[in-house]
Design a protein that fits this description.
Layout lengths: L1 E4 L5 E5 L2 H18 L4 E3 L7 H12 L9 E3 L2 E3 L10 H8 L11 E2 L8 H14 L5 E4 L21 E4 L2 H8 L11 E4 L2 H5 L3 E6 L5 H9 L7 H4 L7 E6 L10
Parallel strand pairs: 2-11, 3-4, 3-7, 4-6, 7-10, 10-11
Antiparallel strand pairs: 1-2, 5-9, 8-9
Helix pairs in contact: 1-2
The structure holds fructose -6-phosphate (F6R).
């Protein structure tokens, strides 16, 4: 395991493989929940967090982590999809994680991507998050194009929860999960970069060689809306990146 602290304040921990680095992120979550049982937090969807979900669910089953009082806000979903839709990210998150642990349904806020007035619903979701005190801990994945949640390239640091256009790259990345690709919406609802930057702690989990180029760009290139993940560096010491060796293979940190 390798730990590095950058002079911008953020830290990166590199571990051998996906499972090992996921266990380290699970440790961070367990520590936070033990210290503050009612933390406001979030997890990403996608392939990256799957081992993390398994580790957290196993620890919860052994009563090592008690999620009873945590407050959960989801990050993003395809526009127009109800959680009961098989392609909904919120529905997937419920099946893959939330329903496997003792998170209380009343404490779960799912992004209202299926609301008939999405712009207004997004503003209410943002206001709800603010009312709950904002994120204590936000755990994120990164897209191959540098997106964070569905904040695609071009997303500014000031953005808040809103409806966004998905890029062709993101739609392609997501297509593998869709039974019927032609039904995939071109838009999504996502929390914004500002919601993330205001978090007291930001954890970015990055695994696999397919993310090596974008991780190097995000951490060693300019801080720019062209690579939204680079904007996370503005959080300084509140940002901790956890990468496996494959994802970190193109990093040259000095
Ligand atoms: C999903 C999300 C996305 C993913 C990213 C990586 O809720 O917010 O930003 O984290 O697209 O996805 P995977 O892990 O499938 O490579």
């Amino acid at each position: 395991m390798l730990e590095f602290k950058h002079n911008e304040g953020w830290a990166i921990t590199i571990a051998t493989d996906h499972r090992t680095v996921s266990a380290l992120v699970a440790d961070v979550i367990a520590e936070q929940v033990a210290a503050t049982p009612n933390i406001v937090w979030s997890l990403p969807t996608g392939s990256t967090p799957i081992p993390l979900f398994d580790i957290l669910a196993a620890r919860a089953a052994r009563e090592e982590i008690d999620f009873r009082n945590v407050v959960f806000f989801s990050l993003d979903d395809y526009l127009g999809l109800h959680p009961s839709d098989p392609n909904s990210l919120s529905g997937w998150l419920q099946r893959e994680f939330l329903n496997r642990v003792n998170v209380q349904p009343a404490n779960v806020h799912l992004i209202p991507a299926d609301d008939p007035i999405p712009g207004e619903a997004a503003r209410h979701y943002d206001a709800d998050l603010t009312r709950c005190g904002g994120f204590d801990l936000v755990v994120l994945g990164i897209g191959e194009n540098g997106h964070i949640a569905f904040n695609e390239p071009g997303s500014e640091a000031s953005t808040r929860t809103r409806v966004v256009e998905m890029t062709p790259e993101t739609r392609e990345q997501a297509a593998g999960y869709w039974n019927d690709q032609f039904r995939m919406p071109g838009q999504a609802m996502t929390i914004g970069m500002a919601n993330i930057l205001e978090a007291r702690q930001i954890v970015l989990l990055v695994t696999g060689s397919v993310k090596a180029t974008v991780l190097a760009e995000a951490l060693t290139g300019d801080i720019s809306h062209h690579v939204p993940a680079s904007i996370l560096r503005l959080a300084g010491a509140r940002l901790h990146i956890f990468a496996d060796a494959s994802a970190a293979s193109q990093l040259n940190l000095n």
